[in-house]
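B., you asked whether I could sanity-check this one before it goes into the benchmark set. Here's the sequence:
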Amino acid sequence: MPHRTPLSPVPADVPEKLELLSRNRQAIIRPVFENPGEFVLLNVRDLAKRVDTAAATVVRIVRELGFESYREFQRYLHELAVKNSTILDTAQSSLAAGSTSKLLKSARKQIAANIDFVTDRVDLLQVQAIAQRLHDARRILLIGGDMAAMLVEYLEYRLLIAGFPVTAVTSPGRTNHLVRSLGEQDMAIGISFRRGLRMTIEGIQHARERGAYCVGITDSTLSPLSRFANELLLVPTNSVAFAASYVAPVALLELLTASAATLRRKEVANRLQDADYEQRHGYRWYQNES
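And here's what the prediction gave me:
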């Protein structure tokens, strides 16, 4: 679904309200939640026809679920369809794009749209507040697996340069062990997109239970991270290729680490002096004969 405008605010307690509906109304609306992509483009009359009920009944159900209008419910279905999509869904869209030239132009446009979101819509005051919490934390645990492992390792590397007490974990077992040591003076950041990786969601859940301040980085307000994190940083991962795009998440991490580094200017300067000598004379760097 290229060029989507993501992250529209939606009611956070829809699953709970769904369970409070009468059995008859649950039976009517559950097929819509199970296959949101099949219903998202339907107007209220057509959706009612598909689920064999009256349009007025659909409107009442939508309002009982906490939506102010059917249009708002459609936005929710759109977010739900995107959240539940798989790599195959994305790949099918890219394969249908036509020629390579057309695909590349579409991909470039999507990359620009993702960056524009960071430029125009990321709340810099929220970024600064989270950076302050990073500065104050006794320990910082970064949790992310699968493809998001590269993001937590990237964030760890940048924060280590600035002297932060940070550890990245990318496997379930290690996550479980390290979360147990967290407390009220600590912080955990979980990075996971779409439906959410189990190890990341449960890691943040347990970190929150132990009193750590938890931040989720994700691409939808429907992410299960929203249930357990103290706050969310939202960025799109829209892509016309066969996998999610991390252009926007990387840009967000740059903003976060830049803000955090300003709180440790002296320490960062001292560390960079050591790094400067190593970069000029260290054995890691290729040296030509000259």
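One thing to flag: Confidence is low (pLDDT under 50) at residues 1-8. Otherwise nothing jumped out at me.
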